[in-house]
TrEMBL record:
This is HAD family hydrolase. Its cofactor is Mg(2+). The keyword Hydrolase applies. GO terms for biological process: riboflavin biosynthetic process. GO terms for molecular function: hydrolase activity. It comes from Variovorax paradoxus. Signal peptide: none annotated. NCBIfam families: HAD-SF-IA-v1 (TIGR01549). InterPro entries: HAD-like_hydrolase (IPR051400), HAD-like_sf (IPR036412), HAD-SF_hydro_IA (IPR006439), HAD_sf (IPR023214).
Length: 138
């Protein structure tokens, strides 16, 4: 029962204001796949409709930053890792993990921290609107 209560609470998420417009815009142009080390479920959080697939570390057996989950995500939509841009807010788990798996990476950094890790991501954005603008060439 304790885990069920914990799991239910993890499904109560508050999205940033730019999340739904960005998911809508991105999903009209790209196949989106979610990779999560957390417990939130795409269906229960209400965002599943924008994703073609979702991978949780718990169900997959390993998570970010390990390459297999990134490669499985790419394969799930018929892409090679080099043709994928992984977007995430954690320098080690998201950016380094994606780069190590052969993907491109975008670092979403809402608090204006400077990049201090190893290999730089191809893109650094302050919010999802800026990500959409960058991908749209603006």
């Amino acid at each position: 029962p304790a885990f069920e209560v914990f799991f239910a609470e993890r499904q109560r998420v508050t999205l940033y204001d730019d999340a739904l417009p960005a998911l809508r815009w991105l999903s009209e142009r790209y196949p989106l796949v979610a990779i999560s080390n957390g417990n939130a479920d795409l269906e229960r959080t209400g965002v599943a409709r924008w994703f073609r697939a979702g991978f949780s570390a718990r169900a997959f057996g390993s998570g970010k930053p390990h390459a297999p989950i990134f490669r499985a995500a790419a394969a799930s939509v018929g892409l090679l890792p080099r043709d994928v841009l992984h977007v995430g807010d954690d320098a080690a788990l998201d950016v380094a993990g994606a780069l190590d798996a052969g993907m491109q990476a975008a670092w979403l950094v809402r608090d204006e921290r400077p990049w201090e890790a190893g290999a730089r991501p191809q893109l650094i954005v302050p919010n999802l609107h800026a990500l959409c603008m960058a991908l749209d060439g603006r």
